[in-house]
């Protein structure tokens, strides 16, 4: 569309606008990004064709419906002519109501249930459901382009102005900053010096200057958001201290700035705990109260998950402040506690509030209740009004008008519903009767019902009889009250007959249950009457189409007591089962826990648990909260002093084991040994059946649809350990003291034990990164401990481990290169844990890379092949194993007999799980002894010799004079297609004249696309990156892989040139690519990994002309990638960056210069954190020039991205080690880099340099002093 709107023909532009208009109106702003449309519109406003202008106005109005009028005005109106502004202002009056998408993309159609119409809006609880379907809210910040303010600030005279002696000049300088920072979105940059200056100005003697500085900070926070977080923490203590001032203007600006810093995401409650603790101990009461008021604001504007994490830090602060001598401080502390209670409830506060006296507790309760009522009232009224308004407007507008073109939005067509101006008040879901999905199919709507009221209200017998009416005969009711048991028995028998004869039972269920609970009631002594009562209740529960949960609540205590009596036990258990079928086992179990736990009769507990055993057999565990059930068994059942209750609980846990599996044992590890042995025996009687354990009965209510299905391992709860993986723990894992590191690893193991070895992946990314570092520890025992812990984390996390542990598996496999058998066994145990969590297919790419790694060693390679054979032997079919055929084939030619034997065993398993057909399709990947072995096993004996000879010819083709060999291969029955890769690489003989033939071929393919990415499978290629290119001379199989990929995706003439042995042809191929580069951006991205491999290949060759052409092309390529907003993937970086870094030390100065510029260009675009390890690898290079360039790059990275790479600054000791080199240039580069680090870090840099000799210290210290002098000359402040 972006290209189409630039078309010179107006008739082509209007349909393009209409397509964007229709996509936006039907799919909404979530699918169609409004930012790109906003960028296109300004040039359309001045279009010479009036139809284009009208369509652009219509598209603008449609944008207003989705993102609101204010963002559109602020972004677009300044770019319009005055006439256009007036026209649009007039049209915006007609934009009303709320916009909602009428269609969904396919992925959303699969995920989301059918939309439900709203017939009525009831209560505040319902409003949450209604609001959940509200239109997408667009943040205006995301629509704006970032604007650089540092450059204009430099030119404005700001730095001179802030140093002026006159307060008016200082104020004007800061006002200029405030004005520049008032834009919606500020481009990130180095604001550290600006913030240091503002920090001084906050405490300026002149109030006006201080106010202006504080307002500037607020504007910077709003414009930079998360990019201002570090500066916000730097400025916060001064801002809180300044709250002591009583001037209204200063107080107001401080309040607004502090609130802006939190709302913009610069500060979060977890970061500011220490600052708040300091502020509430300030001598000035105003600082204490104002700080607590700000904390209240932060809590009220945070979500529940955040407060659950931090309330333990803030409640003690407030409890201490409640004893403050100043009433305002005490009131502010109460406000904080009330805000916490509103979000997370009273339970987390109970223990702390026990210390309060009755007066304070009452005051707090009143504050919570008062705020809760007002919020609920506002929510309810707002919901009802919004629902009514949106229903009426949307129904009428949607039914009367169908949007077809953008111009149809203009006056005289119809009013356009708009997105709300106030983003905080989210509109509620409207009640359209029908809705059309992505395929245009109408869907029937269903009214959303409010949550069922489960708590029964009190009702007297007289009221029950009045409401009963004529449902039951009056004589029957009076007989039920009789003192004579025979009359009661006769009456209950009569009532049973009357109930069974009722036609409309559903309406009378609750009143009949209430009658039976009142008379004869649960205190009835006659067993026969009791039995009849239970039978009537069972009949009602099993017959009524909707049995209310409050009826279950009314009966549950009485029925559970009847279970304890052997005469009524069978009927009572049958009644409980009927309840379970009616309302679901989850509700019945939750209510029974409390009854059985508190009842004095031990048989209520033991017999109730036995009924639970039957219920689990009947209904499974998919409807149950397993953690609650296991906690009940541990805390109540197994702790009972009655043997019958303990035995029943053991049976219940055994029944759970059948559905859940052995993971249940982790939750019972702290049970007494005698009980554990009894549990193990019960588990053997109830072995894990997994998916084959099918429930016998189903639940009638909607609970069966909404609950989690299937049970099994994932039914067990997983604990969020992100709160326990603290920064202190992560730091301790990297401690220089091995004992601290060991203790930290053991702390991780304890966290897993406390979580019952069932954890969520949340917040484990840093943990994996820290444990990964321990795999390179100098202490071998620590490495083995870390391996065991990583395996434990993988087992505890399950399939979700794959995402947060990216790259860890490759480091685990590298440990197989150790010569100690015990170490390799630890690695294999970790792999066992890993494969149990994620399955073998996810591990294959990492295993292949490890098998091709030269450092793995014979023992490691042999162990890995044996492990693979063991894993494959347990599988009947596994197509992904075909990828292992190539590395296994290469290992058949290994020097070690053990490796060859292990590889042969692995190949046998690969043949078994992949099948003959797949193996034959992949024979080209193997050769030599492996090929002979495969052909012997998959082909008949008479075909074997011929096939082997022909395949052998193929593999030998590229290495000889080729003409006769190709002919021979063709005579052996190899097809023309299969020889294509060989013939395309045949060197021309002396007498041949290939040029005319090439030109003819070129003309034949000119009509084809330069790059054919139709069947590209880039994701699969990235997953299968198996080996790193060697920098000296790449392996033959690497070159063959590259040539195969290029032949598949590159046009024939381009492929022929790039793979030609003549460097001039290669230059011609690059020129072809460079000319087409602007028009093939998407295709380039799709085959970027293949191109990068080709560039690496050219880096490894010695031809300077071709290399310079490559270095001319690469900057243009990376500029294109930047324009396409594409960032190198990790696998692409792993292909290209190692070779680029190594070749930075090229012996030709011109090449070095171009390489250096290219490296800096890539570092600007690629993540500094991710590229840093490659540069550090270059510091270990044997080439002095490479080490010099890499040291310079480290300095460049520290200077540009100091904060970003702070976690890897320990690697500065590598740079420091270069100061001992004999080569003067190397020492000079290292010292310059360290001086740059000193400029950023100050004296803290010494912590990262490791152990230094006295000579090194002296040399580095001299350089630092020289740097200070240089900085002073430039009037820059010393870093400390």
UniProtKB/TrEMBL annotation:
<feature type="region of interest" description="Disordered">
    <location>
        <begin position="970"/>
        <end position="997"/>
    </location>
</feature>
<dbReference type="InterPro" id="IPR048491">
    <property type="entry name" value="XMAP215_CLASP_TOG"/>
</dbReference>
<dbReference type="Pfam" id="PF21041">
    <property type="entry name" value="XMAP215_CLASP_TOG"/>
</dbReference>
<keyword id="KW-0963">Cytoplasm</keyword>
<feature type="compositionally biased region" description="Basic and acidic residues">
    <location>
        <begin position="434"/>
        <end position="446"/>
    </location>
</feature>
<keyword id="KW-0677">Repeat</keyword>
<dbReference type="Pfam" id="PF12348">
    <property type="entry name" value="CLASP_N"/>
</dbReference>
<dbReference type="GO" id="GO:0035091">
    <property type="term" value="F:phosphatidylinositol binding"/>
</dbReference>
<dbReference type="GO" id="GO:0007051">
    <property type="term" value="P:spindle organization"/>
</dbReference>
<dbReference type="InterPro" id="IPR021133">
    <property type="entry name" value="HEAT_type_2"/>
</dbReference>
<feature type="repeat" description="HEAT">
    <location>
        <begin position="314"/>
        <end position="352"/>
    </location>
</feature>
<dbReference type="GO" id="GO:0051010">
    <property type="term" value="F:microtubule plus-end binding"/>
</dbReference>
<protein>
    <recommendedName>
        <fullName>Protein MOR1</fullName>
    </recommendedName>
</protein>
<dbReference type="InterPro" id="IPR024395">
    <property type="entry name" value="CLASP_N_dom"/>
</dbReference>
<dbReference type="InterPro" id="IPR045110">
    <property type="entry name" value="XMAP215"/>
</dbReference>
<dbReference type="InterPro" id="IPR011989">
    <property type="entry name" value="ARM-like"/>
</dbReference>
<keyword id="KW-0206">Cytoskeleton</keyword>
<feature type="region of interest" description="Disordered">
    <location>
        <begin position="405"/>
        <end position="456"/>
    </location>
</feature>
<dbReference type="InterPro" id="IPR002014">
    <property type="entry name" value="VHS_dom"/>
</dbReference>
<feature type="region of interest" description="Disordered">
    <location>
        <begin position="99"/>
        <end position="126"/>
    </location>
</feature>
<feature type="compositionally biased region" description="Basic and acidic residues">
    <location>
        <begin position="105"/>
        <end position="114"/>
    </location>
</feature>
<dbReference type="InterPro" id="IPR034085">
    <property type="entry name" value="TOG"/>
</dbReference>
<keyword id="KW-0493">Microtubule</keyword>
<dbReference type="GO" id="GO:0061863">
    <property type="term" value="F:microtubule plus end polymerase"/>
</dbReference>
<comment type="similarity">
    <text>Belongs to the TOG/XMAP215 family.</text>
</comment>
<feature type="domain" description="VHS">
    <location>
        <begin position="728"/>
        <end position="850"/>
    </location>
</feature>
<dbReference type="InterPro" id="IPR016024">
    <property type="entry name" value="ARM-type_fold"/>
</dbReference>
<feature type="compositionally biased region" description="Low complexity">
    <location>
        <begin position="413"/>
        <end position="429"/>
    </location>
</feature>
<dbReference type="GO" id="GO:0030951">
    <property type="term" value="P:establishment or maintenance of microtubule cytoskeleton polarity"/>
</dbReference>
<dbReference type="GO" id="GO:0043130">
    <property type="term" value="F:ubiquitin binding"/>
</dbReference>
<dbReference type="GO" id="GO:0046785">
    <property type="term" value="P:microtubule polymerization"/>
</dbReference>
<feature type="compositionally biased region" description="Polar residues">
    <location>
        <begin position="972"/>
        <end position="986"/>
    </location>
</feature>
<dbReference type="GO" id="GO:0005874">
    <property type="term" value="C:microtubule"/>
</dbReference>
């Amino acid at each position: 569309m972006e290209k189409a709107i630039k078309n010179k023909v107006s008739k082509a532009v209007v349909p393009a606008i209409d397509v964007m208009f229709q996509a936006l109106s039907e799919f909404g702003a979530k699918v169609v990004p409004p930012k790109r449309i906003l960028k296109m519109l300004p040039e359309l406003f001045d279009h010479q064709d009036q139809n284009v202008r009208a369509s652009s106005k219509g598209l603008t109005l449609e944008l207003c419906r989705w993102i609101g009028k204010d963002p559109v005005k602020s972004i677009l109106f300044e770019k319009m002519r005055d006439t256009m502004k007036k026209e649009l202002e007039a049209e915006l009056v007609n934009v009303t109501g709320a916009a909602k998408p009428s269609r969904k993309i396919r992925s959303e159609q699969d995920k989301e249930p059918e939309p439900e119409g709203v017939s009525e809006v009831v209560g505040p609880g319902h409003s949450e459901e209604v609001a959940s379907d509200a239109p997408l809210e667009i943040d205006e910040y995301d629509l704006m382009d970032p604007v650089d303010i540092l450059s204009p600030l430099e030119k404005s005279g700001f730095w001179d102005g802030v140093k002026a002696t006159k307060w008016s000049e200082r104020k004007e300088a800061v006002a200029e900053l405030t004005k520049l920072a008032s834009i919606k979105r500020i481009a990130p940059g180095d604001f550290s010096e600006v913030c240091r200056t503002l920090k001084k100005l906050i405490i300026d003697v002149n109030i006006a200057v201080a106010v202006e500085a504080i307002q500037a900070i607020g504007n910077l926070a709003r414009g930079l958001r998360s990019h201002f977080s570090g500066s916000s923490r730097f400025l916060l203590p001064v801002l809180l201290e300044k709250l002591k001032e009583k001037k209204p203007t200063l107080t107001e600006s401080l309040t607004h700035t502090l609130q802006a810093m939190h709302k913009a995401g610069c500060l979060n409650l977890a970061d500011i705990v220490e600052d708040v603790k300091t502020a509430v101990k300030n001598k000035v009461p105003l600082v204490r109260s104002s700080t607590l008021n700000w904390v209240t604001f932060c809590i009220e504007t945070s979500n529940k998950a955040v407060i659950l994490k931090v309330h333990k830090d803030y409640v003690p602060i407030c409890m201490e402040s409640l004893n403050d001598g100043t009433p305002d401080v005490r009131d502010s502390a109460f406000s904080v506690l009330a805000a916490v209670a509103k979000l997370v409830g009273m339970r987390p506060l109970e223990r702390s509030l026990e210390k309060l006296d009755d007066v304070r507790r009452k005051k707090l309760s009143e504050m919570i209740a008062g705020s809760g009522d007002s919020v609920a009232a506002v929510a309810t009224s707002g919901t009802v009004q919004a629902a009514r308004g949106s229903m009426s407007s949307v129904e009428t507008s949607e039914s009367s008008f169908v949007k077809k073109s953008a111009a149809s939005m203009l006056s005289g067509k119809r009013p356009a519903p708009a997105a709300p101006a106030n983003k905080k008040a989210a509109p509620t879901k409207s009640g359209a009767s029908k809705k059309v999905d992505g395929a245009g199919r109408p869907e029937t709507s269903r009214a959303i019902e409010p949550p069922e009221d489960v708590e029964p209200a009190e009702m007297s017998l007289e009221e029950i009889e009045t409401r009963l009416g004529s449902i039951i005969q009056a004589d029957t009711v009076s007989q039920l009250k009789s003192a004579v048991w025979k009359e009661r028995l006769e009456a209950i028998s009569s009532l049973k007959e009357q109930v069974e004869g009722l036609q409309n039972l559903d309406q009378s269920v609750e009143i009949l249950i209430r009658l039976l609970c009142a008379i004869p009631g649960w205190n009835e002594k006659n067993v026969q009457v009791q039995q009849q009562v239970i039978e009537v209740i069972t009949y009602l529960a099993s017959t009524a189409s909707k049995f209310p949960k409050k009826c279950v609540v009314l009966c549950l205590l009485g029925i559970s007591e009847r279970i304890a009596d052997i005469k009524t036990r069978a009927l009572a258990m049958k009644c409980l089962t009927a309840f379970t079928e009616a309302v679901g086992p989850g509700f019945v179990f939750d209510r029974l826990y409390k009854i059985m736990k508190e009842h004095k009769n031990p048989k209520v507990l033991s017999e109730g648990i036995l009924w639970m055993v039957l219920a689990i057999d009947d209904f499974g565990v998919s409807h149950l909260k397993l953690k609650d059930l296991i906690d009940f068994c541990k805390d109540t059942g197994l702790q009972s002093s009655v043997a019958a209750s303990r035995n029943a609980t053991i049976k219940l846990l055994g029944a759970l084991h059948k559905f859940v599996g052995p993971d249940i044992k982790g939750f019972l590890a702290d049970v007494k040994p005698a009980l554990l042995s009894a549990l193990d025996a019960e588990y053997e009687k109830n072995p894990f059946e997994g998916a084959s354990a099918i429930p016998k009965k189903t639940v009638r209510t909607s609970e069966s649809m909404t609950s989690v299905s299937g049970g099994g391992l994932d039914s067990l709860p997983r604990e969020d350990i992100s709160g326990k993986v603290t920064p202190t723990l992560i730091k301790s894992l990297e401690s220089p003291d091995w004992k601290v590191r060991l203790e930290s690893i053991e702390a991780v193991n304890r966290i897993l034990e406390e979580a019952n070895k069932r954890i969520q992946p949340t917040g484990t990314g840093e943990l994996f990164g820290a444990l990964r570092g321990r795999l390179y520890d100098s202490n071998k025992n620590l490495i083995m401990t870390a391996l065991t812990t990583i395996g434990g984390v993988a087992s505890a996390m399950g399939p979700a481990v794959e995402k947060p542990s990216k790259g860890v598996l490759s480091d685990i496999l590298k440990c197989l290169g150790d010569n100690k058998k015990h170490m390799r066994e630890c690695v294999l145990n970790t792999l066992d844990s890993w494969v149990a969590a994620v399955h073998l297919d996810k591990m294959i790419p990492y295993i292949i890379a490890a098998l091709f790694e030269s450092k793995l060693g014979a023992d490691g390679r042999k162990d890995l092949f044996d492990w693979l054979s063991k894993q494959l032997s347990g599988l009947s079919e596994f197509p992904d194993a075909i990828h292992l055929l190539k590395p296994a084939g290469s290992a058949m030619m290994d020097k070690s007999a053990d490796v060859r034997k292990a590889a042969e065993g692995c190949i046998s398993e690969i043949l078994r799980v992949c099948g003959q057909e797949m193996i034959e399709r992949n024979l080209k990947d193997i050769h030599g002894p492996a090929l002979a072995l495969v052909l012997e096993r998959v082909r008949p004996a008479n075909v074997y010799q011929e096939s082997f000879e022909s395949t052998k010819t193929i593999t030998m083709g590229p290495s000889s004079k080729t003409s006769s060999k190709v002919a021979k291969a063709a005579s052996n029955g190899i097809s023309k297609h299969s020889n294509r890769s060989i013939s395309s690489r045949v060197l021309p003989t002396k007498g041949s004249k290939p040029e005319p033939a090439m030109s003819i071929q070129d003309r034949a393919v000119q009509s084809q696309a330069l790059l054919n990415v139709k069947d590209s499978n880039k994701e699969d290629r990235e997953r299968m990156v198996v080996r790193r290119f060697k920098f000296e001379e790449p392996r033959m199989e690497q070159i063959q892989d590259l040539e195969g990929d290029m032949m598949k995706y590159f046009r024939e003439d381009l492929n022929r040139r790039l793979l030609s042995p003549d460097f001039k042809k290669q230059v011609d191929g690059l020129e072809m690519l460079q000319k087409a580069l602007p028009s093939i951006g998407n295709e380039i991205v799709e085959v970027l990994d293949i191109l990068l491999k080709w560039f690496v290949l050219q880096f490894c060759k010695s031809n300077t002309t071709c290399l310079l052409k490559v270095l001319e092309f690469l900057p243009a390529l990376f500029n294109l990638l930047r324009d396409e907003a594409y960032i190198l993937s990790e696998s692409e970086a792993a292909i290209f960056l190692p070779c680029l870094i190594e070749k930075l030390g090229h012996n030709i100065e011109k090449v070095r210069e171009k390489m250096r510029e290219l490296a800096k260009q890539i570092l600007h675009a690629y993540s500094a954190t991710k590229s840093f390890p490659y540069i550090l690898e270059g510091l270990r290079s044997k080439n002095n020039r490479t080490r010099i360039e890499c040291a310079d790059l480290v300095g460049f990275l520290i200077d540009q991205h100091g904060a970003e790479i702070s976690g890897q600054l320990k690697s500065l000791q590598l740079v420091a080690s270069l100061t001992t080199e004999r080569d003067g240039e190397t020492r000079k580069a290292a010292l310059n880099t360290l001086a740059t680090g000193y400029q950023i870090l100050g004296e803290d840099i010494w912590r990262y340099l490791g152990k230094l000799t006295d000579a090194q210290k002296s040399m580095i210290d001299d350089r630092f002093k020289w740097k200070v002098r240089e900085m002073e000359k430039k009037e820059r402040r010393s870093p400390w």
